[in-house]
Amino acid sequence: MSTHVTARGDDQTAARTAEAGEGGGTAAARETASPELSPATPETAAPEPASGSAAEAERAARFVDVRGLEKTFSGDGAPVLALRGLDLQVAEGTFLGVMGQSGSGKSTFLAMLGGLTHPSGGSVSVDGIDLYALPGERLADFRREYLGFVFQSFNLVPYLTALENVMLPLAVKRMPSAEKRERALGVLERVGLTARAGHLPGKLSGGEQERVAIARALVNEPPLILADEPTGALDSETTVEIMDLFATLNREGITIVMVTHNPEIQSYFDRTIVLRDGRLDCELPACAAETPL
Questions:
Q1: Per-residue confidence band for 51, with pLDDT thresholds at 50, 70 and 90
Q2: Nearby residues of 66 by Cβ (< 8 Å), 6 or more positions away
Q3: C-beta neighbour count of 119 within 10 angstroms
Q4: Per DSSP, what are the bridge partners of residue 228?
Q5: Which residue intervals of the chain are DSSP H helices?
Q6: 85: phi > 0 → left, psi -120 to 50 → alpha, else beta; which?
Q7: DSSP code string of 224-263
Q8: What are the structural domains, with CATH classification, of the chain?
Q9: Which tens digit of pLDDT belongs to each residue from 201-226?
């Protein structure tokens, strides 16, 4: 279960890392959050045991809580309504697939869930944290400590080795360089790339580059991974390998939200929602047979 926090401050990273080294999972990592970032509301006060358990269960059930989410892009032409009042709750530990045709709002939704694009209306909460109520620096802290991003284009730095790419998110961490290297090697081992740690991205296959991108997303031990078409550039065999890896991470307790156009990987998801014209159209398998995916 998650704890009453709003971020996992850097001042206690060492304690969190020690826990992780002893086999602690994502929930254990969040227990070391900086108390100064906790919202000043009655919800964060120490509850009675019974009500506390109920509150934790409710928070886990609404680990991701999206309410009335709207996004309008304004430019030279007419405004574009990318999201139109989207409501969604995702329980902790869920593997959620997000499908829909191009232009349905999938990538906008993922960007807003990741704290990258401010909404025009509505709210996004993760683990009880109202993302867009956070000031800029705290929102950046949230992204660093809570989220791992995986993209279709990998976004690897071409002149850095696999190991160096994985170490990038640790650059602002207050920990010895040797510890950063050890942690990065640990996640490379986790994705089966220890032997390729010293190779540049150009010397890696597409599947290996995707594994490096996943390792980079994991290195900060986030409780939530956001993946945007991570198999879009892969062949069918490599797609299965990468999806098996995501499924393993999900079984270990990581919540995953994945945008995809590929109906063949839908079986990996606990839930699959379909967006259409910026709205939640339906959730499989309850969608109509003619629903465009």
A1: low
A2: 86, 87, 88, 89, 113, 122, 123, 124, 125
A3: 19
A4: 151, 259
A5: 13-21, 26-30, 49-61, 106-113, 136-146, 162-167, 177-190, 206-218, 236-251
A6: left
A7: EEEEESTTTTS-HHHHHHHHHHHHHHHHTT-EEEEE-S-G
A8: 10-284 (3.40.50.300)
A9: 999 999 999 999 999 999 999 999 99
Q: Specify whether the CB–CB gap between 244 and 237 falls below 8 A.
A: no
What is the reported pLDDT for 22?
Answer: 38
Q: Yes or no: say if 230 and 241 are a contact pair by the CB < 8 Å rule.
A: no
Cα dihedral across residues 152, 193, 202, 183: positive or negative: positive
Confidence of residue 94 (pLDDT cuts 50, 70, 90): very high
By CB neighbour count within 10 A (0-12 exposed, 13-18 middle, 19+ buried), where does 123 fall? middle
Q: Are 216 and 165 in contact (CB under 8 A)?
A: yes
pLDDT in tens, 221-272: 999 999 999 998 899 999 999 999 999 999 999 999 999 999 999 999 999 9
Per-residue tokens: 233: 């550039």
> Whole-model pTM?
0.81
